[in-house]
Records
---
Amino acid sequence: MTRTRARAVRIGVPVLAATTQGAVLVAVGLLITHPPAGWWDPGERGLVAWLAAHRTAALTGASDWLSALAFTPAVVTVTALAAVALLVGRRWRGAALLTGAVALQAALFVAAAHLVDRARPDVVRLDGALPTSSFPSGHVGAATALYGGLGLLLLRPGHGWRRVVCALLWAVPVLVAASRLYRGMHHPTDVVAGALNGAAALWVVSRTLPARQRHRTGPAAPVRGPVALVYNPVGVDDALLERLHAVVTAHGHHPPRLLPGSAEDSGRAAAERAVAGGARLVAACGGDGTVTACADALAGTDAALAVVPCGTGNLLARNLGLPADPADALAAALGGHARRIDLMRAEGDGLPVRAAATMAGMGLDAAVMASTHRGLKRRLGWPAYLLGAIRHLTDRQFALTVRVDGGPPVRRHVRMAVVGNVGTLQGGVRLLPDAVPDDGLLDLVLVQPQGLRGWGAALVGLVTGTRRPGPAAPLEHFRGHRIELTADRARPRECDGDPVGDGRVLALSVRPDALLVRLPGTVRDTPLEGAGTARTEAGRETA
């Protein structure tokens, strides 16, 4: 791909995404304001009228303060101050994310409000007659883009106090939405559309910005020997292969061997051929399935794996601190160092023994993986899983028996059970806070919330990393070398995001030090995440 074409693609894709976002926003607004015959009435008038009839002095004062957080002067001031602070700290990407998301949602809000022109609720409105229409809520959109973006920037480092602040920031758009309804300024669908507009703006801008580059504090360990690229031909096109080829040669290597993986084994045979042919580094270019297949082929050898994220979840790449862009990730791996991490061995009834590198589970997560269409994942990325999650939130709990390291059985009723070698999901959510990929242990979480209050406690626990001990906790954690899950009847199962068929049993065992993997930076500045007891004996890190 020429530089001109690459530049055009880099500019055109975000423009197309923003245009699509605006078109969808307007289309939804017109559908609400001009519904077809027989359209379902969500009963919005009743909710706003009920809130207006139950106003109190205290609630009115609180709503006034909350609305002020998202008025234009406050949003502009907070955005400017945050951007200046981020630039002073040399975090230009964070500054660009905040300012870009706030600006994008504002532009789309103005356009949609003009085209849809929805009347505000027919109640006494505490803010008077504003010049814009009711759809969508500009306050909620701005609050989501600004305070939601600040929360994302704080969440990444993973410290406990940052998670608490992040949770408070993420609560602001929700409270602003409630205040706008209370003050009679919007219909419920207006605030929902505003929140989606702000969230989509964050997503579009984050995907537009180039990947964050890590600064090294010392010399990196170079790769010695031939390099092979094993790729998923469905997710990796010729243009991306050219970019990856250029990265390898730019680092002083001979042109890499290009080996397409097959649908039958996700690239395992190709990786084995690469090692047999003398490759010292195998770059797995695909999703978590391709990465795991290559990791299994390289396990126990001296050949190193470079993870090149080209899929939907890319969990291993995220947990190893690699950039999201494939070419940047390969460059970081080639310029970084090598380190050994653990793998998992998965087995069960009707499930042949297979490797897993990130997480494996049973229940809700597996059902979501199985019901999310591949085409939707290619178009939306990991947010496609959110649509599948909505469909399965009402799935019933099921009885599960857990054994850790052959110990006494533990019986619970759960929504899902996840065993992990790593702990971070998309968006920086720490599902398994203690999971470290090089500590020789596996971590298990049982997700077992009871009702809306339980789901709320579970979400707070995921964001803040706090825990409630005991079997009644919405999130219950275990650690061990071998974890066996036995359900009351056949349930959906998944390994590294791939459905592996329903079954009653899923057993995971750790394979310590199984894989040599390339990490960005140097040994000193790239500690693997997690709060577990990571081992530091001699031989854990290899140049």
---
Amino acid sequence: MALAMVQRLPLLMVFAVPWTSSTWAAAAIDRTPHLDPLRITATTDACAPDLDSLARIRCRKEIRIGVRADYPPFGQSTQDGPQGFEPALARLLAERMGVEVRFVAVSAADRMVVLGEDRVDALIATTGHTVQRDEQALFVRPHYFESSTVVIGPKQSELHEVRTLDALAGRTVCVTIGNSTNAELAVHGARLMLFPSAGRLVEKIRNGTCPLAAHDDSLLLPVLPRGHEVKLSFAPLPWGIVVNRRSASLAQWLARELRWLHRDGTLLRLARTYGVATPWLAAQQVRWSAPPCNTASAPDTPACIDPPRDNRLAPTGLAGAAQEVETWLHKHLGLEITLAMLKTQVAMQLFLGGVGYSLALVAGAVLATVLIALGFGAGLSARWAGLRWPLGAALLVMQSTPMVLFMSAAGMLLSSLGLVTPFKAWCVAVVVLGLFNGSNAGQAVAEARRDLRQAGRPAGLLAAALQARAQLASFAANATRGSPVASLIGVPELLAAQTDIASFSAESTTTFGLLLVFYMALVSLVVMALDRLQRRLQPVPP
């Protein structure tokens, strides 16, 4: 309501503030005719393709702006259209330009793609200004907001000691795809659980699915559940309006308008209207209302313009070759392949570590399956009932419990004891995979042993295992196929590593396609090795 009343007031009344003679003189210099939106007019009725971005928008009398539909109080979808701080800012800028605004809903994962494909003229969509993103698009400065990433979790729990990034090692942290600080969390060993939207993340926090979650304080603090607290805060990040790099004229116009909106307190009033935090905006009003920022040279003055956050990731020696492969595949085969795991040292480290953990996990799971199978085979075929019955009950539990639930329960026990480290999680995963598959294989060994006894043949444990070697090999292969489930409890195997890489590269199709190929190849190799071992153990006919 307050915003609607403001929008109906004459332009001079909306931005009327106390002026001193010096600030009025400085403003007069800054408010040159080319800044006046009423003077930005098209010279022809048809929008010529060679018009610059600002003239083209004025010509078609419409500006397309990408906004978030799931990020209150900054942007959300309603029956009356997009509402929130950012849609209000978009409407205000369109009014000052003298055009209509058409909103396009975007998400953190696709907003830069939407801009790059020219489906919008500008983004006002909670987009943090980073050095890495400067390579993709043009950020308008001054910025219009600043946030920090916070990690939240329950107050009274085993998570009370989580106060630093290093303390997140081995712990599951819920994040959204494309968040600029996901790489930093992954570098410190956090296991990332990805969600496609901020709304989905908030839902999972509220229903208790996420013990720890990381996102901008602007999103999480207003919805902080009772009993939760901020564990740590890091990575201050300025937000900017984003345009295509070829839209310099539009960026210049927006920059001049934002200076005025900061100076006269309009952005500060919008923030209060929509319940957005105001300390940073209040400081910006002071900055832009006093020298040197209230002069015509302000856009080039470092004291007035905040730099982007430098979140660049160190490249690998293969980055150039990976880019060439991507370009060749796109040019000749039309394939959009992104080899994110080969381009940065962080991604490469996660990828190689994931491969190593996966191979070690499979080796451990196969060995555990065989050993536990022999143990169950001996116990289930024992003549003493006191040994058969407990093992039979354990077998029944294994056969009636889904692997995912079994692994999750083991992970919860591990976490409750405060023992979550990658190595300990690996040990627990090996035991769970071995127990789940080995108990079933042990039943086959026990049955083979009973058959040998009934046939009057030697019924030793090794002979029974050789008799049931096909079932042993089958369950060992199942242990291999089930190894990615270990990522649920914090084992940094390849599935977890690829999830972490996708979280900050915002690319998942190629990443998980390669994951599928890896596990298909790994299972095939294990099956081939077991098959060859079976043939070697095949008794030679007399």
